[in-house]
Amino acid sequence: MLRLTWFMFDERKEDEEGYTVRRSWTDLFRGVRGEKIIKTEVITEPFEDPELNAYFRPDGRYVRAPASDQVRIPKGTNIFLEVDAANNRTDGKWDRPDGVHGKNSELYKQVYIPPWFRLRICLFIVFIWLFAALTGVSITIVPLVFGRQVFAKLIPAHVRKNDVYAFSIGIYILGSALYAIVHLGKFISYLRTTLAINAETPKNIMRQVATVSSRVARIAWTYTAFLFVLPTLFAFLIEFYFIVPLHTYFAFDERHVVHFVQSWTLGLLYVKLTTRIILWHEESRPAQSLRAITRDGYLNPDARLATRSFILPVGLLLCTALLYPWCLARMVTMTILRDNREKHLLTYRYAYPLCLCICLIGFALYILLGWVKDWRMKIRDEVYLIGERLHNFGDRKTGSNGVAVPNMRRIET
User: Fold this and answer.
1) In what order do the strands lie in the sheet with 108-113?
2) What is the pLDDT of residues 344-355, one digit of tens each?
3) Measured in Å, how far apart are the chain's first and last C-alpha atoms?
4) Does residue 155 carry a pLDDT above 90?
5) What is the b/e burial string over 388-399, where b = at least 16 CB atoms within 10 angstroms of the residue's CB?
6) What is the mean pLDDT of residues 28-32?
7) Is residue 49 within 8 Å of 83, Cβ to Cβ?
8) What pLDDT, on the 0 to 100 scale, is given for residue 407?
């Protein structure tokens, strides 16, 4: 409507380089388009033709404008240089190929400027503000109010509610409803095609039910594992290994409360960061496996690959990391600290960081042993083997024919 497409987005629209003049208001309401182009300098009345109901009249001007906002315009030089439709200057002066407003310069481009250009730019900015305000209200306020209403129905009034979760619930419910409404026609056509009655109808129905059930089960299993199970295990891992020991150290007398929803949200963030780290190395095997899970679309995941590559090994690893310190603390409290029940709480809470320290020490010893092994190999190669080879190369015996024969005994040694 503002006819600024060529100027703002460098995309020429010939229908914006003028306006349509119609014979009557009826033609305006009917949306009659003018195909015949009438230039502004034509004096004759075009509507003298009884068959002509609308015509297109060009207006505005063509200019050379800076191609970006980083182009420096010398002082005293106009920002726009007026040209014709063929990108030739209209002031009759020499048209330089390069330099300021050069015809072949990549820093300047030919664009179309409609009449009332400054007013149109101001309206464009105002419309951007209005669009941002409307979308901001519709995307934030409406889901937030809806989520609060859902919270009011599910949670007692005396419980303090968090607007972040209210907004999340509202945006997911309204977004799902909007998605269902948009794709309702496809779903109805799919049902008509699937439920078409013929001789093969019972078999087709059973086949479709089995296919849909399998897909729903795969979707439920995959996304439940990635959105609930693994984030919860990640959250408990961080909680038991870091947060609980620190809280015990700084405030032993206070009771520690695990906020499940907040912890699950942080666990979801941990899983997301882990997937980003995996996908950072695009050619690695975990990244290829992660991309292969959704290669057929997000609504058709490869549940077997996801279970074999991520869900099962990561789940077993996290469960082992959570249960092993607890079992160790359980053994200590039942054998060594059986009579000292005051230390049981500290034993359970400090068992996790203690096991973490033991694992880190073991890993550091493994790395150190690898370094020592490499050093031994280097020392043996540099001091013994190289010296022995040089010694064998210099110590040769002369045969009967005068040819030097190496000392085979030392080479074998």
Assistant:
1) 81-83, 61-66, 108-113
2) 888 889 999 999
3) 92
4) no
5) eeeebeeeeeee
6) 67
7) no
8) 47
- Minimum mean pLDDT among 34-43, 130-139, 398-407: which range? 398-407
d(CA 85, CA 14): 11
Q: Yes or no: say if 22 and 3 are a contact pair by the CB < 8 Å rule.
A: no
For residues 57 and 22, the answer to whether their CB atoms sit within 8 Å is no
Please name the residue that has the structure tokens 């975990």.
Answer: 286
Helix (H) and strand (E) counts in the chain: 16, 7
Tokens for 184, please give them.
Answer: 């309702």
CA distance 280 to 107: 36
pLDDT at 197: 56
User: For position 122, what pLDDT does the model report?
Assistant: 95
Do residues 74 and 88 touch, judged by C-beta distance below 8 A?
no
Do 169 and 147 meet the contact criterion of CB atoms below 8 Å apart? yes
Q: What SS3 class is residue 75? A: coil
Cβ atoms of 91 and 70 within 8 Å: the answer is: no
Q: What is the pLDDT of residue 45?
A: 62
Q: What are phi and psi of 75, to 5 degrees?
A: -65, 135
Four-CA torsion 54, 60, 62, 68, nearest 10 degrees: -120
Please give the Cα distance from 331 to 259 (Å, whole number).
28
Model pLDDT, residue 46: 66
In this model, does residue 91 exceed pLDDT 60?
A: yes
Q: What is the mean pLDDT of the chain?
A: 82
The number of angstroms, rounded, from the C-alpha of 218 to the middle of its chain's C-alpha atoms is 23
Q: Which of 87-101, 136-150, 222-236, 302-316 has the lowest mean pLDDT?
A: 87-101
Helix (H) or strand (E) holding 198: none
Classify strands 81-83 and 54-58 as parallel, antiparallel or unpaired: unpaired
Instruction: Give 398's strand partners.
Output: 404
CB 31 within 8 Å of CB 136: no
Mean pLDDT of 378-402: 62
Residues in the chain: 413
> Residue 340 carries which side chain, given as an amino acid letter?
N
Distance CA 33, CA 235 (A): 63
- Measured CA to CA, the distance from residue 45 to residue 161 in angstroms comes to 71
Average pLDDT over residues 302-323: 93
- Tell me if residue 389 falls in helix, strand or coil: helix
Single out the residue of 355, 321, 353, 351 nearest to residue 337, CA to CA.
Answer: 351
Taking residue 82's Cβ as centre, other Cβ atoms within 10 Å add up to: 13
